[in-house]
Amino acid sequence: MSIDQVRAYFGFTKMPFGKSLPPSALYRSQGHQEAVARIAFLVGEAAIGVVTGEVGSGKTVAARAAVAELEPSRHSVVYLPNPAVGARGLYAELVSRLGAEPRFHKAALIAQATSLLAAECSERGRHPVVLVDEAHLLDSAQLEELRLLTSSEMDSADQFALVLIGQPLLRARLRLGSFAALEQRLALRYVVPPMSPEETAGYVSHHAKLALLTELPGKHHRVAGISCGRVPCHGRQGEPGPGLGVAGAPAGWGAQRDW
Ligand SMILES: Nc1ncnc2c1ncn2[C@@H]1O[C@H](COP(=O)(O)OP(=O)(O)O)[C@@H](O)[C@H]1O
Ligand SMILES: [Mg+2]
After folding, report:
1. What pTM was estimated for this model as a whole?
2. Which has more confidence, 245 or 27?
Protein backbone atom coordinates (compact mmCIF):
# COMPACT_ATOMS: atom_id res chain seq x y z
CA MET A 1 0.00 0.00 0.00
CA SER A 2 1.47 3.37 -0.99
CA ILE A 3 1.58 6.48 1.19
CA ASP A 4 -0.94 8.11 -1.14
CA GLN A 5 -3.35 5.23 -0.60
CA VAL A 6 -2.94 5.49 3.17
CA ARG A 7 -3.60 9.21 2.94
CA ALA A 8 -6.66 8.73 0.76
CA TYR A 9 -8.00 5.99 3.02
CA PHE A 10 -7.95 8.19 6.12
CA GLY A 11 -8.85 11.35 4.25
CA PHE A 12 -5.60 13.06 5.29
CA THR A 13 -4.60 16.13 3.32
CA LYS A 14 -1.01 15.50 4.46
CA MET A 15 0.70 12.82 6.48
CA PRO A 16 0.31 13.27 10.25
CA PHE A 17 3.27 14.03 12.55
CA GLY A 18 4.70 16.62 10.20
CA LYS A 19 7.66 18.39 11.73
CA SER A 20 6.96 21.94 10.60
CA LEU A 21 3.96 22.80 12.73
CA PRO A 22 3.37 26.45 13.56
CA PRO A 23 3.25 27.17 17.30
CA SER A 24 -0.53 27.47 17.04
CA ALA A 25 -0.80 23.86 16.00
CA LEU A 26 1.35 22.32 18.71
CA TYR A 27 -0.23 19.94 21.16
CA ARG A 28 -0.40 21.63 24.54
CA SER A 29 0.65 18.88 26.89
CA GLN A 30 1.38 19.89 30.44
CA GLY A 31 5.13 19.51 29.92
CA HIS A 32 4.99 21.63 26.79
CA GLN A 33 3.05 24.41 28.48
CA GLU A 34 5.35 24.41 31.48
CA ALA A 35 8.46 24.50 29.34
CA VAL A 36 7.07 27.45 27.37
CA ALA A 37 6.12 29.28 30.59
CA ARG A 38 9.54 28.71 32.13
CA ILE A 39 11.42 29.91 29.10
CA ALA A 40 9.17 32.99 29.12
CA PHE A 41 10.05 33.49 32.79
CA LEU A 42 13.78 33.37 32.01
CA VAL A 43 13.29 35.92 29.26
CA GLY A 44 11.30 38.20 31.53
CA GLU A 45 13.89 37.97 34.29
CA ALA A 46 16.91 38.10 31.97
CA ALA A 47 18.11 35.04 33.82
CA ILE A 48 20.00 31.85 33.04
CA GLY A 49 18.20 28.52 32.98
CA VAL A 50 18.42 24.97 31.78
CA VAL A 51 15.70 22.97 30.06
CA THR A 52 16.45 19.30 29.64
CA GLY A 53 14.54 16.29 28.43
CA GLU A 54 14.91 13.13 26.44
CA VAL A 55 15.28 13.26 22.68
CA GLY A 56 11.90 14.07 21.14
CA SER A 57 10.36 15.31 24.38
CA GLY A 58 9.54 18.62 22.70
CA LYS A 59 12.28 20.93 24.02
CA THR A 60 12.98 22.60 20.72
CA VAL A 61 9.35 23.10 19.80
CA ALA A 62 8.73 24.56 23.27
CA ALA A 63 11.56 27.04 22.72
CA ARG A 64 10.08 27.92 19.35
CA ALA A 65 6.65 28.44 20.89
CA ALA A 66 8.11 30.60 23.68
CA VAL A 67 9.95 32.78 21.19
CA ALA A 68 6.86 33.15 19.01
CA GLU A 69 5.27 34.80 22.03
CA LEU A 70 7.92 37.49 22.30
CA GLU A 71 7.46 41.00 21.03
CA PRO A 72 10.07 41.26 18.24
CA SER A 73 10.59 44.98 18.76
CA ARG A 74 11.58 44.34 22.37
CA HIS A 75 13.72 41.22 22.04
CA SER A 76 16.73 40.11 20.06
CA VAL A 77 16.60 36.37 19.95
CA VAL A 78 19.76 34.48 19.08
CA TYR A 79 19.14 30.79 18.54
CA LEU A 80 22.26 28.64 18.36
CA PRO A 81 21.17 25.23 17.08
CA ASN A 82 24.53 23.51 17.17
CA PRO A 83 27.10 24.42 19.80
CA ALA A 84 29.70 21.95 18.52
CA VAL A 85 31.79 24.80 17.17
CA GLY A 86 34.42 25.26 19.88
CA ALA A 87 34.77 28.10 22.37
CA ARG A 88 35.79 30.70 19.80
CA GLY A 89 33.09 29.45 17.42
CA LEU A 90 30.42 30.07 20.02
CA TYR A 91 31.39 33.73 20.32
CA ALA A 92 31.81 34.06 16.56
CA GLU A 93 28.32 32.71 15.94
CA LEU A 94 26.84 34.95 18.59
CA VAL A 95 28.53 37.99 17.05
CA SER A 96 27.53 37.18 13.50
CA ARG A 97 23.97 36.43 14.53
CA LEU A 98 23.91 39.84 16.16
CA GLY A 99 24.77 41.23 12.76
CA ALA A 100 28.51 41.99 13.07
CA GLU A 101 31.68 40.60 11.56
CA PRO A 102 33.46 38.49 14.22
CA ARG A 103 36.88 39.83 15.17
CA PHE A 104 39.83 37.55 14.69
CA HIS A 105 41.50 37.46 18.08
CA LYS A 106 39.58 35.72 20.79
CA ALA A 107 39.99 38.45 23.40
CA ALA A 108 38.67 41.05 20.94
CA LEU A 109 35.87 38.70 19.96
CA ILE A 110 34.75 38.27 23.56
CA ALA A 111 34.71 42.03 24.08
CA GLN A 112 32.80 42.40 20.83
CA ALA A 113 30.14 39.86 21.88
CA THR A 114 29.74 41.53 25.26
CA SER A 115 29.38 44.99 23.82
CA LEU A 116 26.97 43.86 21.10
CA LEU A 117 24.75 42.24 23.69
CA ALA A 118 24.88 45.40 25.82
CA ALA A 119 24.16 47.59 22.79
CA GLU A 120 21.05 45.63 21.93
CA CYS A 121 19.65 46.72 25.24
CA SER A 122 21.04 50.20 25.69
CA GLU A 123 20.89 51.44 22.09
CA ARG A 124 18.01 49.52 20.58
CA GLY A 125 15.92 48.85 23.64
CA ARG A 126 15.82 45.16 22.86
CA HIS A 127 16.52 42.51 25.45
CA PRO A 128 18.88 39.82 24.18
CA VAL A 129 17.70 36.25 24.52
CA VAL A 130 20.29 33.57 23.75
CA LEU A 131 19.06 30.02 23.30
CA VAL A 132 21.68 27.30 22.99
CA ASP A 133 20.09 24.10 21.74
CA GLU A 134 21.74 20.69 22.01
CA ALA A 135 23.64 22.25 24.91
CA HIS A 136 24.70 18.84 26.21
CA LEU A 137 27.26 19.05 23.40
CA LEU A 138 28.91 22.11 24.95
CA ASP A 139 32.40 21.23 26.04
CA SER A 140 34.02 22.36 29.27
CA ALA A 141 35.73 25.33 27.65
CA GLN A 142 32.45 26.53 26.17
CA LEU A 143 30.61 26.21 29.46
CA GLU A 144 33.33 28.26 31.08
CA GLU A 145 33.05 30.87 28.31
CA LEU A 146 29.32 31.10 28.85
CA ARG A 147 29.89 31.59 32.54
CA LEU A 148 32.32 34.41 31.83
CA LEU A 149 29.95 36.00 29.35
CA THR A 150 27.09 35.96 31.82
CA SER A 151 29.21 37.34 34.64
CA SER A 152 30.88 40.04 32.57
CA GLU A 153 30.58 43.57 33.75
CA MET A 154 27.44 44.37 31.89
CA ASP A 155 25.16 46.81 33.51
CA SER A 156 22.43 44.99 35.36
CA ALA A 157 19.92 46.55 32.97
CA ASP A 158 21.86 45.06 30.06
CA GLN A 159 21.76 41.48 31.21
CA PHE A 160 20.53 38.91 28.77
CA ALA A 161 18.52 35.74 29.14
CA LEU A 162 20.42 32.54 28.47
CA VAL A 163 18.53 29.29 27.96
CA LEU A 164 20.51 26.08 27.70
CA ILE A 165 18.44 23.33 26.11
CA GLY A 166 19.70 19.79 25.98
CA GLN A 167 19.50 16.14 26.82
CA PRO A 168 19.58 14.93 30.46
CA LEU A 169 23.37 14.62 30.28
CA LEU A 170 23.52 18.42 30.41
CA ARG A 171 22.19 18.57 33.94
CA ALA A 172 24.50 15.82 35.05
CA ARG A 173 27.45 17.71 33.60
CA LEU A 174 26.48 20.99 35.23
CA ARG A 175 26.35 19.26 38.59
CA LEU A 176 30.03 18.44 38.34
CA GLY A 177 32.09 20.55 40.70
CA SER A 178 34.00 22.24 37.91
CA PHE A 179 30.85 23.99 36.71
CA ALA A 180 29.65 25.00 40.17
CA ALA A 181 29.98 28.69 39.37
CA LEU A 182 27.62 28.40 36.41
CA GLU A 183 25.30 25.99 38.25
CA GLN A 184 24.91 28.48 41.07
CA ARG A 185 23.77 31.15 38.67
CA LEU A 186 20.92 29.10 37.25
CA ALA A 187 17.57 30.66 38.04
CA LEU A 188 15.69 27.63 36.83
CA ARG A 189 16.17 24.00 35.87
CA TYR A 190 13.28 22.31 34.14
CA VAL A 191 13.01 18.74 32.98
CA VAL A 192 10.40 18.24 30.25
CA PRO A 193 8.51 15.15 31.41
CA PRO A 194 7.28 12.39 29.13
CA MET A 195 3.61 12.61 28.19
CA SER A 196 1.15 10.66 30.31
CA PRO A 197 -0.77 7.83 28.58
CA GLU A 198 -3.79 10.17 28.29
CA GLU A 199 -1.67 12.90 26.78
CA THR A 200 -0.10 10.44 24.37
CA ALA A 201 -3.56 9.47 23.11
CA GLY A 202 -4.47 13.16 22.85
CA TYR A 203 -1.21 13.86 21.00
CA VAL A 204 -1.89 11.17 18.41
CA SER A 205 -5.44 12.32 17.77
CA HIS A 206 -4.24 15.95 17.68
CA HIS A 207 -1.80 15.13 14.88
CA ALA A 208 -4.42 13.02 13.08
CA LYS A 209 -6.90 15.91 13.22
CA LEU A 210 -4.31 18.35 11.86
CA ALA A 211 -3.64 15.96 8.98
CA LEU A 212 -7.32 16.20 8.02
CA LEU A 213 -7.19 19.98 7.72
CA THR A 214 -6.39 21.72 4.49
CA GLU A 215 -4.99 24.66 6.41
CA LEU A 216 -3.36 24.75 9.83
CA PRO A 217 -5.01 26.81 12.59
CA GLY A 218 -5.04 30.60 12.28
CA LYS A 219 -1.75 32.39 12.06
CA HIS A 220 -2.65 35.60 13.82
CA HIS A 221 -4.71 34.77 16.83
CA ARG A 222 -3.94 33.39 20.25
CA VAL A 223 -4.88 29.99 21.56
CA ALA A 224 -4.79 30.02 25.36
CA GLY A 225 -1.71 32.13 25.59
CA ILE A 226 0.17 30.51 22.72
CA SER A 227 0.61 33.07 20.00
CA CYS A 228 -0.23 31.81 16.57
CA GLY A 229 1.54 34.64 14.82
CA ARG A 230 4.68 34.65 12.85
CA VAL A 231 7.69 36.37 14.39
CA PRO A 232 8.70 38.92 11.83
CA CYS A 233 12.43 39.37 11.46
CA HIS A 234 13.85 42.86 11.48
CA GLY A 235 17.14 43.83 9.99
CA ARG A 236 19.56 45.97 11.94
CA GLN A 237 18.22 49.26 10.59
CA GLY A 238 14.65 48.05 10.63
CA GLU A 239 14.79 46.70 7.10
CA PRO A 240 13.22 43.30 6.60
CA GLY A 241 15.74 40.50 6.53
CA PRO A 242 17.18 37.64 8.46
CA GLY A 243 18.90 39.85 11.02
CA LEU A 244 17.56 40.65 14.43
CA GLY A 245 14.18 39.88 15.75
CA VAL A 246 15.16 36.26 15.63
CA ALA A 247 18.82 36.26 14.81
CA GLY A 248 20.23 33.03 13.57
CA ALA A 249 16.95 31.81 12.25
CA PRO A 250 15.51 32.44 8.82
CA ALA A 251 12.49 34.63 8.22
CA GLY A 252 9.24 32.97 9.17
CA TRP A 253 10.99 31.35 12.07
CA GLY A 254 8.08 31.75 14.41
CA ALA A 255 5.85 29.74 12.17
CA GLN A 256 7.01 26.99 9.87
CA ARG A 257 10.45 26.32 11.31
CA ASP A 258 11.75 22.80 11.52
CA TRP A 259 13.26 23.14 14.99
N1 LIG B 1 3.74 19.83 21.80
C2 LIG B 1 3.91 19.26 20.61
N3 LIG B 1 2.94 19.32 19.67
C4 LIG B 1 3.10 18.75 18.47
N5 LIG B 1 4.19 18.10 18.08
C6 LIG B 1 5.21 18.01 18.97
C7 LIG B 1 5.12 18.59 20.27
N8 LIG B 1 6.27 18.32 20.92
C9 LIG B 1 7.03 17.63 20.06
N10 LIG B 1 6.40 17.44 18.89
C11 LIG B 1 6.89 16.71 17.73
O12 LIG B 1 8.00 15.95 18.12
C13 LIG B 1 9.13 16.28 17.33
C14 LIG B 1 10.33 16.33 18.24
O15 LIG B 1 10.23 17.48 19.06
P16 LIG B 1 11.51 18.33 19.41
O17 LIG B 1 11.09 19.60 20.04
O18 LIG B 1 12.40 18.45 18.22
O19 LIG B 1 12.19 17.38 20.49
P20 LIG B 1 13.53 17.61 21.28
O21 LIG B 1 14.06 18.96 20.94
O22 LIG B 1 13.17 17.47 22.72
O23 LIG B 1 14.43 16.48 20.84
C24 LIG B 1 8.82 17.62 16.69
O25 LIG B 1 9.36 17.73 15.41
C26 LIG B 1 7.33 17.64 16.63
O27 LIG B 1 6.92 17.07 15.41
MG1 LIG C 1 15.76 19.56 19.96
Report:
1. 0.81
2. 27
